[in-house]
Design a protein that fits this description.
alpha+beta, Uridine Diphospho-n-acetylenolpyruvylglucosamine Reductase, domain 3, Enolase-like, domain 1, five-stranded antiparallel β-sheet, four-stranded antiparallel β-sheet
């Protein structure tokens, strides 16, 4: 690795002041688990890394009076895994964390980093999209709120400015909605997934009022599959309905090939996993 400067600000204002809107080699970091791999591989050569680990007020999980959750950007993924508040509001998150990489990574990697990195293979972004989550982003110009769906704009790309940080994530109250996340790894259990499918459903009897369906890993970014959602709206849940939704989702998804599978292979994985994820959500066992 080439030499670089490491800054460790203790306030949000100081951190923002160290970033450069015009210099892509200056980056903020949380756990630095993903960026460090890119640096070791020679893909990224920073001139300055701005560590957020000592910045106050960016870590922690708060259960709000309206049933929502506020999660600080530098909160470790392991904290989500073990949080009683998260398990109560969105148990799909705690279940998903148990199969995300390994415990060493989860102890260091942060919530904000998992979103700001823009990697389509990450498990957390599709789950947060399915839950209707949003982020609060801050910059020298002020703050703004972005839906997680709108934050992710492309392959390793986000809507964040180079001098903008994620400060927190808000997961709204879920009410009667149930959610699930399913992924398939072509290698070991700790490998990046070949496909991930997150769903959130509002059930009425043996039918669905509506559903949110999100695909990841096989796509350039975590993406809602609106055709699959339309196919599930107001239907009675049976094999035929789930097959139609799977076909709609597989057809509309913009799939990329990589070492984990061809376009045709990943399209078939999406087709199959949409139905499985819906059934998983309805069964109340939200991650697999």
């Amino acid at each position: 690795m080439t030499p670089f400067e490491l800054s460790e600000p203790t306030s949000l204002e100081e951190a923002l002041g160290l970033l450069d809107a015009d210099d892509p080699t200056v980056r903020p970091v949380g756990g630095c688990t993903a960026l460090m791999l890119m640096m070791k591989a020679g893909v990224f050569h920073p001139t300055r890394l701005v560590s957020l680990r000592k910045v106050g007020g960016l870590s922690g999980i708060t259960a709000n009076a309206d049933g929502s959750l506020t999660i600080g950007a530098t909160t470790p993924l392991a904290a989500l895994e073990h949080s009683a508040e998260v398990a109560k509001v969105a148990p799909v998150i705690t279940r998903t964390m148990r199969r995300l990489s390994n415990v060493r990574v989860r102890n260091v990697a942060t919530v904000g980093g998992a979103l700001a990195h823009g990697d389509p293979h990450m498990d957390l972004p599709p789950v947060l999209i399915a839950l209707g989550a949003s982020v609060k982003a801050v910059s020298p110009k002020g703050e703004r709120t972005l839906e997680v769906e709108d934050l992710l704009t492309g392959y390793y790309e986000t809507a964040l400015g180079k001098n903008e940080l994620i400060a927190s994530v808000t997961v709204p109250a879920q009410g009667a909605r149930r959610a699930a996340y399913m992924k398939f790894t072509a290698g070991s259990a700790e490998d990046w997934p070949a496909v991930g499918v997150a769903v959130s459903v509002h059930a009425e009897g043996d039918g669905l009022r509506d559903a949110i369906v999100v695909a990841s890993a096989a796509t350039t970014k975590a993406t809602r599959l609106t055709g699959a959602e339309a196919a599930l709206k107001g239907v009675r849940v049976d094999d035929a309905a789930l097959a139609r939704a799977g076909e709609a989702g597989a057809t509309e998804a913009e799939i990329i090939a990589d070492v984990r599978g061809s376009v045709a292979y990943k399209r078939e994985l999406i087709r199959v996993h949409i139905g499985r994820a819906v059934r998983q959500a309805l069964a109340g066992n939200g991650a697999h």
